[in-house]
Write a structure and sequence with these properties.
This protein is α+β, with helices and mostly antiparallel strands. The chain is 34% helix and 21% strand. The strands form two sheets. Strands 1-2-3-4-5-8-10-9 form an eight-stranded mixed beta sheet. InterPro entries: DMAP1-bd, Gtb1-like, Man6P_isomerase_rcpt-bd_dom_sf, MRH_dom, OS9-like_dom. Keywords: Coiled coil, Disulfide bond, Signal.
Length: 313
């Protein structure tokens, strides 16, 4: 009987040891990235950006942040900010369908008082009738780190990023980042404003166009189309169709003049030389390559490259 008691006691001790070891199971600290890298999900259900990030722009000393990511945990969510790339959010939970999503893709700078103040991350995951977007404010700090996260309005997020790269008084000025040509445009705009040739509103419009040309701001799709149409209208014979139309119009006029001369008995001599035949010259224009029709250096003064500086508002 005593032997059976000893066997039972040994079995109980072994079972207790198993439960003790099970109690020491390592807690998973990373979020359940069900939507990010779960191998059981099809690829289409994982995090997929809707667009590619904009090209890197702005102060050159900030370019070293590209390729790095900085995280911040707020409540049950972990936020990751990857400068010039994206912002993501991961729910810190053990639920099988924990949320992981994109809060925005690098889009453009926010510029205030001619100074870079933040980075806009747009076109994130869908949120009801719009896409999520995030503004990342840059402030001076001892280390590179995310310091604060909030959601001022539904699906619009605000992150504060501290960095020693923003501590110098001139570190976030826009003017030094521009090319020499764009600086000249800015100087001319300043002078026009000083001479009262343009209004404050016109000055801001010119600055916005300069920032867009520099790639610091993204022009709207409608404005891009408008710019392309304006450029096409400033060119002569930009399409073969227009050339054909003008050719027919000129040919009709030449025929009218010939008939008029014949009607009045005026003898005219047709020069058949290739280089003096009007009809042949017109034919050459019509059959010319599109690259020639789009304008050459001889017609640069017709393109209005600096036309915006002649406008007044």
């Amino acid at each position: 009987m005593a032997a059976w008691a000893l066997v039972l006691l040994a079995l109980l001790n072994a079972g207790f040891g198993l439960f003790t070891s099970a109690g020491k199971m390592k807690i998973v600290e990373e979020p359940n990235t069900f939507g990010l890298n779960n191998p059981f999900l099809p690829q289409t259900n994982r995090l997929l950006p809707k667009m590619a990030p904009s090209p890197i722009s702005g102060p050159a000393h900030l370019f070293r942040l590209a390729g790095k990511c900085f995280s911040f945990v707020e409540s049950t969510y972990k936020y990751e900010f990857c400068p010039f790339n994206n912002v993501t959010q991961h729910e810190q939970t053990f639920r099988w369908n924990a949320y992981s999503g994109i809060l925005g893709i690098w889009h453009e700078w926010e510029i205030y008082n001619n100074t870079f103040v933040g980075m806009w991350m747009r076109e994130g995951d869908s949120c009801e009738t719009k896409n999520r977007e995030t503004k990342v404010l840059l402030i001076c700090g001892k280390n590179n780190k995310l310091a604060h996260v909030s959601e001022p309005s539904t699906c619009v997020y605000s992150l504060t990023f501290e960095t020693p790269l923003a501590c110098h008084p001139h570190s976030l000025l826009v003017y030094p980042t521009l090319t020499e040509a764009l600086r000249r445009k800015w100087d001319e705009a300043e002078q026009s404003l000083y001479d009262e040739l343009i209004t404050e509103q016109g000055y801001k419009k010119l600055l916005k166009e300069i920032f867009e040309e520099a790639g610091l701001l993204r022009a709207t799709e409608e404005k891009e189309i408008e710019k392309k149409n304006k450029k096409l209208k400033s060119l002569e014979f930009e399409t073969v169709e227009k050339c054909n139309k003008e050719y027919k119009k000129l040919s009709k006029e030449i025929k009218r003049l010939k008939d008029l001369l014949t009607q009045h008995g005026v003898v005219y001599e047709r020069n058949t030389a290739e280089n003096t035949s009007a009809e042949h010259v017109i034919h050459k224009v019509v059959t010319a390559k599109p690259s020639v029709l789009n304008g050459s250096k001889a017609n640069e003064h017709l393109r209005g490259d600096t036309g915006i500086w002649n406008d007044t508002f």
